[in-house]
From TrEMBL, chain A:
It comes from Starmerella bacillaris. GO terms for biological process: small GTPase-mediated signal transduction; vesicle-mediated transport. Residues 625-635 have a biased composition (Basic and acidic residues). This is Rab proteins geranylgeranyltransferase. GO terms for cellular component: cytosol; nucleus; Rab-protein geranylgeranyltransferase complex. GO terms for molecular function: GDP-dissociation inhibitor activity. InterPro entries: FAD/NAD-bd_sf, GDP_dissociation_inhibitor, Mrs6. Residues 600-635 are annotated as: Disordered. It holds the Pfam family GDI. It comes from the Eukaryota.
From TrEMBL, chain B:
CDD domains: Rab5_related. It comes from the Eukaryota. One of its GO terms (molecular function) is GTP binding. Signal peptide: none annotated. This is Rab family GTPase. The lineage of its organism: Eukaryota, Fungi, Dikarya, Ascomycota, Saccharomycotina. SMART domains: RAB (SM00175), RAN (SM00176), RAS (SM00173), RHO (SM00174). Pfam families: Ras. The keyword Nucleotide-binding applies. It comes from Starmerella bacillaris (Yeast). InterPro entries: P-loop_NTPase, Small_GTP-bd, Small_GTPase.
Length: 635, 208
């Protein structure tokens, strides 16, 4: 094993440990010692592992599941079946209400192998701390990114494409000159961002909708577009100080790598990134083992017992993700999260852990955390388990037999569709956000697309109803749009039905020409899955206090629930917080000198290349020349 | 003289830990055998070039297992889109050949159908040395014959080489390079590049 310790590494500054293991001796059992043990390979934990490993810390990283990612995992069809069984067995967070539907897919086995299911889908804004970190850490080199430019808003039964940049505003014929001028004024304000700190802080009490209406005289349609689509906020009453940076993020992200504000990684989002950071950690010497869980912890000796029977002496810290099964504590109960959020208050535990609720047992651990915090006199808001920091995210995944090309820009394979509050027949209080992936995203094969819907309504049942309604809206919309292609040539009465009354859907491409027609043909769902996950809220976690897994322990800490947003906001902040709890500060977080920079010579195509004698190893890319030629390998 | 065309492919290394995968890679990459090496290969992977024709270069992006194979924790990412795999074994170890065979089975499950797999026996220098020391030995030295027949049966490329002396290393990579779908690479390239985001091409230049 590596002889580097965190302390030594700190003294030495950034070090590059020896390349891990391919020709080190085979070891059958996990190491008996490590500096830091991390249980759970979620994205924040994986970033932590890589940051620590590159800083010289000896990391043992395990996961109870046989796949990487923890709550961020990305599953093959086969893994998904296993996961569903696990949920049914109760060894995943309880109360997830996972519902699963598969159509009789005929010859699914060969085809189905090519499906991937992203348990927590994300898109990446170009201007984001996550992308900066991916480039700096070189983990971006393991990933393939594609642009995502289409943000659609569903309003008044139609899809509107978001008017996100100046050019679009100028050319958008549906906007009046007056509206254009006001929008331009607002966009200029956001981009220049000359707002004073105390003025900005005061905005935390002002709903964004009111602010945009009063300060910029924007109309409802533009406000919805800016806040719900561009800003991806949950509703119009979020504070201006929350929403403005999110709107700004979109605008700043445009035209950095192309005419898109966001990107997605192929073959899955956060789970793919987690794999990349784990690989990076392994290169720096971290040890990986999957399918093994933390079963025991001795607080006196800091010895961890794992389910494979091994015992590990932990020198510095151990972390257990709250979504990892472990007999050390009960699993999270999603219902409790939801209930608290609805009541907008904190848990009312009285010290006995008895809430008189049906979820009594599962509540206990969080009550004990809460009580501990009270005893310590810590501010409640700093408790990551308080409702200020946590909530639920209800999700629905559907694979349909339609490529949904109509929603993508030419050459792209993904789009965002948002359903603003009040736009669904359920009169949804919270926005429903959807990521649609077509065949080019490496998630579904040709002929299919995958729809990921999510909402943050704290009422699980309402959230589920909203998702179902949004799904049916998506369905009728895509049917209408894809049917139009056949319309000119071969329209028959059986293809299309006439619907009386209000128009049902229209689209950005088709305008309103087909609003009164509804096709009778139904979309085929290869599969549909709905579930609810416990998630974190917010973007900044630097003030939270990490909680011990067992009361009184200060070495074995619980990590944080993965944020429920579809952007990567908050994850780097969480990883930094975890890192700080080990190293004492996050100053040198991923401050890695890769040492090979001087060897990084770009290949000169004019130089004759001899395969063996004059070979120069060009370790691909460097912070100075990020990912030149590496971004695309798929052939 | 015009610049050579460069076709890029992903190559993964597999095999039991003690067979010398990294040494082999380093030998190829640097042309140096470091007996007692403490390498700093960096965060990503090696990019190495093989010139097939005066105006055609195959660039391998070589992924090392980084030790994640030790507890079978190799991520799907490792196998994904790999065009070639070198499955390395020790010419003197029957056990390492058995492990190599299980890696080949793993590749058949995890990797793309079109992947080119080369079975590579390392430590040819040791094998030759043993043979030289006992020229009249009637007993079998090494496991070349078993390995060769397995490779033929399984449809694998087969090489014997020495990371220590450099013998035959070039042939391994050149042989694999020749099997790469070069024409397909160039024909799909144009389309793919339009869609992929090049993180090195930030127009504002401040992405990092």
């Amino acid at each position: 094993m590596s002889s580097y310790s965190a302390r030594e590494a700190t003294r030495r500054g950034s070090v590059v440990p020896p390349l891990a293991g391919v020709d080190r001796p085979v070891i059958d059992t996990v190491p008996s010692k490590c500096d830091v043990l991390i249980c759970g390979t979620g994205l924040a934990e994986s970033i932590l592992a890589a940051a620590l490993a590159w800083q010289g810390t000896n990391v043992l990283h395990i996961d109870a599941h046989n796949v990487y990612g923890d709550s961020n995992m990305c599953l093959s069809s086969k893994d998904l079946t296993t996961w569903i069984e696990t949920v049914a067995n109760g060894s995943e967070p309880t109360g997830m209400n996972a519902q699963f539907y598969v159509s009789a897919p005929g010859n699914s086995s060969s085809r189905a192998q090519r499906f991937l299911f992203d348990m927590s889908p994300h898109v990446m804004f170009v201007k984001s701390d996550m992308l900066d970190l991916l480039i700096k850490s070189r983990v971006a080199k393991y990933l393939d990114f594609k642009g995502l430019s289409q943000f659609h808003t569903y309003e008044s039964d139609s899809f509107e494409k978001v008017t996100g940049n100046k050019e679009q505003i100028f050319t958008d014929q549906s906007l009046s000159l007056k509206t254009k001028r006001k929008l331009m004024k607002f966009i200029k304000f956001v981009l220049e961002w000359t707002i004073e700190e105390n003025e900005f802080r005061a905005l935390s009490n002002i709903p964004i909708s009111l602010y945009l209406e009063k300060e910029f005289e924007l109309e409802k349609a533009q406000i919805v577009e800016l806040v719900i689509a561009i800003g991806l906020c949950d509703h119009l009453d979020v504070s201006a100080s929350y929403a403005l940076p999110k709107i700004r993020r979109y605008l700043l992200s445009l035209d950095v790598y192309g005419s898109f504000p966001a990107m997605y990684s192929m073959y899955g989002s956060s789970g793919e990134l987690a794999q990349g950071f784990c690989r990076s950690a392994a290169v720096a010497g971290a040890t990986y083992k999957l399918g093994v869980q933390l079963t025991g912890w001795d607080e006196q000796s800091n010895i961890a017992t794992l389910s494979d029977g091994s015992k590990v002496q932990v020198a510095e810290k151990a972390f257990l993700s709250p979504t990892q099964p472990s007999p050390l504590r009960p699993l999270v109960n999603v219902d409790q999260f939801a209930d608290e959020d609805i009541n907008q208050n904190v848990p009312q535990g009285d010290g006995s852990g008895d809430l008189g609720s049906k979820n009594k047992n599962a509540n206990t651990i969080y009550n004990s955390f809460d009580n501990l915090q009270r005893l310590k006199g810590t501010k409640y808001a700093a408790n990551p388990y308080s409702s200020a920091y946590r909530g639920i995210t209800s999700r629905m995944v559907a694979v349909v037999t339609n490529e949904c090309k109509e929603w993508f820009k030419d050459g792209e394979s993904a789009a965002i569709v948002v359903f603003p509050p009040g736009s669904l027949s359920t009169n949804n209080e919270y926005a429903v956000q959807t990521i649609v992936y077509g065949p080019g995203a490496g998630i579904v094969p040709e002929g299919f697309s995958c729809w990921y819907l999510n909402t943050h309504n704290p009422d699980k049942q309402k959230a589920r109803d909203d998702l179902n309604d949004a799904l049916s809206k998506l369905e009728s919309s895509i049917l209408r749009e894809s049917n139009l292609g056949h319309l000119i040539g071969s329209l028959s009465g059986e293809d299309i039905a006439y619907k009386h009354g209000a128009a049902v859907v229209s689209s950005v491409r088709l305008g309103e020409s087909m609003q009164n027609f509804v096709p009778q043909k139904r979309l085929n769902y290869l599969f549909k899955l709905a579930y609810t996950s416990p998630t974190s809220k917010g973007r900044k976690f630097n003030k939270v206090e990490l909680q011990p897994v067992l009361p009184g322990s200060d070495t074995l800490l619980s990590t944080l629930f993965a944020p429920g947003e579809i952007s990567y906001d908050g994850i780097v902040s969480q990883a930094r917080k975890l890192y700080e709890s080990v190293v004492g500060s996050d100053d040198d977080f991923f401050d890695v000198d890769f040492e090979d920079d001087e060897e990084t010579e770009a290949l000169d195509p004019l130089e004759p290349i001899d395969p063996i004698d004059s070979m120069k190893d060009t370790v691909s890319g460097s912070p100075d020349h990020p990912a030149e030629e590496v971004m695309h390998m798929e052939l | 003289m015009s610049a050579p065309r460069i076709a890029q492919f992903k190559l993964v290394l597999l095999g039991e830990s003690a067979v010398g995968k990294s040494s082999l890679l380093l030998r190829f990459a640097r042309g140096v055998y470091e007996d007692n090496r403490e390498s700093t290969i960096g965060a990503a992977f090696l990019a190495q070039n093989v010139r097939l024709e005066p105006d055609l270069v195959v660039r391998f992006e070589i992924w090392d297992t980084a030790g994640q194979e030790r507890y079978k924790a190799l991520a799907p990412m490792y196998y994904r889109n790999a065009n070639a795999a070198l499955v390395v074994f020790d010419l003197l170890s029957q056990e390492s050949l058995a492990r190599a065979q299980s890696w080949v089975r793993e590749l058949r499950v995890q990797a793309d159908d079109g992947i080119i797999i080369a079975l590579v026996g390392n430590k040819l220098d040791l094998l030759n040395q043993l043979k030289a020391e006992s020229p009249n030995s009637s007993g079998k030295i090494g496991i070349s014959e078993d390995a060769k027949s397995y490779a033929a049966e399984a449809g694998l490329l087969y090489y014997e080489c020495s990371a220590k002396t450099g013998e035959n290393i070039e042939a391994v990579f050149k042989g694999v390079a020749e099997k790469m779908p070069i024409n397909e690479y160039f024909s799909s390239q144009e389309e793919e590049q339009q869609h992929a985001v090049d993180l090195g091409a930030s127009s504002s230049g401040c992405a990092c």
